[in-house]
Amino acid sequence: MGCGSAKAASPPAVVPNRTDVVMDDDQAAAQNGVAKAAIARTVEVPKAVAFEVPLESAAPGGGTGLKSQPPERLQKQRAADSPPITVEAIREKQAQAEQRRQEVLEERVRTSRQFAEKAMAAHSTREQNEEPAGRDA
What is the largest CA-CA distance in the chain? Predict the structure, then answer.
């Protein structure tokens, strides 16, 4: 329990001769004759590091020195041996797509006609069933 800063705090020093007096670190150090500077910990600072970044590359051709390769997915795409795209091939694909569109449209027309025929047949059967009942009355 408690907060994180409570763990970093040191408990107050107790004077060994007197049990009723509690002192903080500065008072205890002054009474014991130890200077506060001797108690303080020294922190070592790492040496500085310097970098030199050339503005112009020393690589031949004025490049950055890195290999200029496309990403892997594009390399794989290039590696696939596909025939060159021609105008004729594009026109064939467009014709096939148009044929598929026409087939889908014809299928929709056919199903809507079937539905309409079934609806008309059901409607006419209902009218035929209702007419004799109406004549009897």
Answer: 129
- Rounded to an integer, the average pLDDT of 36-41 is 57
Whether the model pTM is above 0.70: no
Q: From 45, 68, 65, select the one nearest 57 (Cα to Cα).
A: 65
Q: Where are the domains of the chain?
A: 84-125
CA distance 102 to 108: 10
Q: Each residue of 105-133: b (16+ CB within 10 Å) or e?
A: eeeeeeeeeeeeeeeeeeeeeeeeeeeee
Q: What are the distances in angstroms from CA 19 to CA 12, 16, 22, 23, 118?
A: 13, 7, 8, 11, 106
